[in-house]
């Protein structure tokens, strides 16, 4: 699969061949769904917490005598039915993460890349570097490329000026090739890869 390579001025500066085993895989929505759920579950903080009967503040003294009052017997006032008492089966601090096989995770990344390629929503950049860190010229350059919702994946390191210039542009995300993931690819309309990113991703996924 051949695709043109562009620069930030939206001019063709060459051509690159995308590996069919990475960018031409059959698109499976079920795998993408599993992967997105996996990523979102893993990033949940899980810090919600309610106090149980043993944790709420209060005296452990018996509030009234066992018999003779006409009231139900009580050992303390920290019971769930008492005001300010503990919560029964309330949420507690835990991890929401679950396991997903490594092969499935790699396949999901291939499918996400292939889905963008099939839709014609992949742009290959010669390089993601900027001469200055200002946002205005970068916004104009991305507008020339027709990008208003995009994930830009650079090489192993992102150029500092490029990162700063794109930081305040809405709906434009920048990641290293190591940080490329299914959720961020799917949440933006267009996927922009540098030539270095293509090589890194191909090398990473070739063995999957």
Summarize it.
With 208 residues, this protein is an alpha/beta fold. It has helices spanning 20-23, 29-43, 102-118, 135-144, 160-166, 182-187, 195-206, and strands at residues 2-6, 12-17, 122-125, 150-153, 172-175, 190-194. The chain folds into two domains: 2-44 and 97-206, Ribosomal protein L4/L1 (Ribosomal Protein L4, Chain: A), CATH 3.40.1370; 46-95, no CATH class.
- C-alpha end-to-end distance: 20 Å
Fraction of residues in helices?
A: 25-40%
CATH homologous superfamily (4th level) name of the largest domain: Ribosomal protein L4/L1
The biggest sheet amounts to: 6 strands, mixed
Question: What share of residues are in beta strands?
Answer: 5-15%
Q: What spatial form do the alpha-carbon principal axes imply?
A: elongated
CATH overall fold name of the largest domain: Ribosomal Protein L4, Chain: A
CATH architectural category of the largest domain: 3-Layer(aba) Sandwich
Query: Averaging pLDDT over every residue, what do you get?
Result: 93
Return the domain count: 2
**Uncertain regions spanning at least 5 consecutive residues:** none
Secondary-structure element order, as H and E?
EEHHHEHEHEHEH
The overall strand count is 6
| CATH hierarchy, class of the largest domain | Alpha Beta
Rg, rounded, reads: 27 Å
With strands numbered from the N-terminus, the spatial order across the biggest sheet is: 2-1-3-6-4-5
Question: Total number of helical segments?
Answer: 7
The class by helix and strand makeup works out as alpha/beta
